[in-house]
Amino acid sequence: MKKLLACLLTIVSAMLLASCQPSNEAKNPRVKLASLKKMIEHKFERFPVLEYHHIKRPEARWSRTPENFRNDLQWLYDHNYYPVNLKDVLTGFEGLPEGKVPVVLTFDDSPANQYRYLEDGTLDPECAVGIIKAFHEKHSDDWPMRATFFILIRTNDKNKNAFGHPERLKQLVDWGMEIGGHCYSHERLSEISTEAARYTLARASKAIEELSGQRPVSMATPMGLYPKDESVFSGKYQSIAYDYKLVCEVAGGFQPVPWSKNFNPLHINRIQAIDSEWQRFFYNNSKAPHKLRN
User: Theoretical Cys-Cys bridge with 234: which of 107, 211, 219, 243, CB 3.0 to 4.6 Å?
Assistant: First the structure.
């Protein structure tokens, strides 16, 4: 009987893994697919990747107030979500507690209001990192400090160049968070040459690794614009090698799990963290991931 069960598991595992393979080379997942056991244990087929920009008042198209961001975290906590970094997709959410649904908090453009210190040297309790840290300290056993920051390296706005203080990136990594790319200077990838795209992606990767000690594997395309040749997300520019395994869109809704046939690592869906999107995808959606399937 044990031999028969083992044989059946092997056959089912092979069939599931075969069904997970993308149908074309553009979807070639440099991703470690989850085991059969993990696929059976996880009771969700999609998960949210939330997109934030500014954390400031007033509430606007690209701004979330500190109060609303705190409410977002509380709502997620109350509905069985668990924060992970985007790169955790590559391991099939290894370490995810049973009964939880992963949520990825992503932050674009690295404005200072995402990570800021007050004049007395204390972490600003109304910046994104301050709010995340406070929420973690309140729920230390089941809400780790996890978030993915897609940073800019050099722009005309000094406050957006890695929060205006690049040395802080190592602290984010030490706390358990992820640093991802957003091009070197917010270039529109659809409007520049393939060579220029490789240049900005490579420069950003090199700078992030030097500043944070963490080589980026994730990125978000500025304004959701993609290059004509998506092979540029991995490769080399002159002597600089880089490899963005996961690339985020600017929208798209819930993201399919990495063992789904619909999973494409170069087109990760996101949900913009604004009231209308919360209403659409969470509050009024009976098929939201926190409604676990039987």
Answer: 243
Closest CA to 226 of 201, 202, 206: 201
How far is it, in rounded angstroms, from Cα 266 to Cα 218?
Answer: 9
Query: What is the residue whose two structure tokens read 């209001």?
Result: 113
This model's pTM is above 0.85: yes
Scanning the structure block, which residue is given the tokens 């990594």?
Answer: 173
Q: Does domain 2-283 have CATH number 3.40.640.10?
A: no
Element of type H or E holding 3: helix 2-19
Q: Which helix (H) or strand (E) holds 203?
A: helix 194-212
Distance between CA 47 and CA 175 in Å, rounded? 23
Chain segment 23-72, per-residue pLDDT in tens: 434 444 455 554 444 555 678 999 999 999 999 999 999 999 999 999 99
Rg of the chain (C-alpha set): 19
Q: Which carries the bigger pLDDT value, residue 274 or residue 10?
A: 274
Residue 31 φ then ψ, to 5°: -130, 135
pLDDT in the model for residue 33: 52
For residues 271-283, give the mean pLDDT. Answer: 95
Helix (H, G, I), strand (E, B) or coil at 212: helix
Question: Who contacts 138 (Cβ-Cβ below 8 Å, separation ≥6)?
Answer: none
| Pair 107, 149: CB distance under 8 Å | yes
